[in-house]
Specification:
With about 240 residues, the chain is mostly helical. The chain has 12 helices and no strands.
Length: about 240
């Protein structure tokens, strides 16, 4: 716990609408600084560091999530425009995409099915309840789509949202390392893998590698949401 004097100051500051936004930006800048100082090590991913910092701060100050989100919701609002902006690098790589259309379609369909089935099989093997198993199915797509799919098949949207965030962070941290070990150097393949497996957070990591990887990752993120929305309800019947 923090000292009483600081607690009093915090209670006053917590009432200010921009506090959540300011803390979010400062936490991300701290994560970005740590990431650059560590020469880009994936284990200090800026999103991961900022999430940890915010959780620790909210716990120390006894602030509930709803209070924090009142100020931070502007960042949440910007997720929509940020996702749409991913169309720009995709447009710039349109000529490359046209040459790879068949391979992209096959990779997306297979990747989406594998991501959903593997999540449900692992959850079931660990003894999770059917509702939890279904909540894990759409964990590789962006949060709004994942929550809608989870609700449709009988999962818990709030649990799905947490799993989506965890999946994105793990993908951004471990994904490039796994691809390097598998000797996958093609920027198109790396982007598709990152976008299909770890949605927006993975796409941000792919953009840091190259415009081509970012473009294919953004494409994979968007289309994987469509494929998952179709595939998961069909697969869910096997796990109920």
């Amino acid at each position: 716990m923090i000292p009483a004097d600081l607690q009093t100051i915090w209670v006053y500051l917590a009432a200010q609408p921009l506090l959540g936004l300011s803390l979010t930006l400062l936490a991300y800048l701290a994560g970005r600084w740590a990431y650059l100082k560590a020469k880009g090590t994936p284990f200090l991913n800026p999103v991961l560091v900022s999430v940890v910092l915010l959780i620790v701060l909210l716990k120390l100050t006894g602030t509930d999530y709803q209070t924090y989100f009142q100020g931070a919701q502007f960042v949440h609002f910007l997720l929509g425009p940020a996702t749409v902006a991913l169309a720009l690098p995709l447009y710039r790589q349109l000529h490359t995409l046209r040459r790879s259309m068949h391979a992209v379609a096959t990779a997306l369909i297979v990747g989406s099915i594998v991501a959903s089935l593997s999540a449900m099989w692992i959850a079931q093997a660990l003894g999770a309840a059917p509702q939890t198993v279904l909540s894990a199915a759409p964990k590789s797509v962006t949060t709004p789509i994942a929550m809608g799919v989870a609700e449709q098949v009988g999962g818990l949207p709030s649990l799905t949202a947490a799993l989506v965030l965890l999946t994105g962070i793990i993908g951004a941290v471990v994904g490039p390392w796994v691809l390097d070990r598998l000797k996958i150097r093609d920027a198109r393949a790396r982007g598709l893998a990152m976008g299909t497996a770890s949605h927006g957070i993975g796409t941000a990591r792919a953009l840091a590698e190259s415009q081509t990887a970012g473009a294919f990752s953004g494409l994979a993120m968007g289309l994987n949401g469509v494929v998952t929305a179709i595939v998961v309800p069909l697969l869910a019947g096997w796990f109920k």
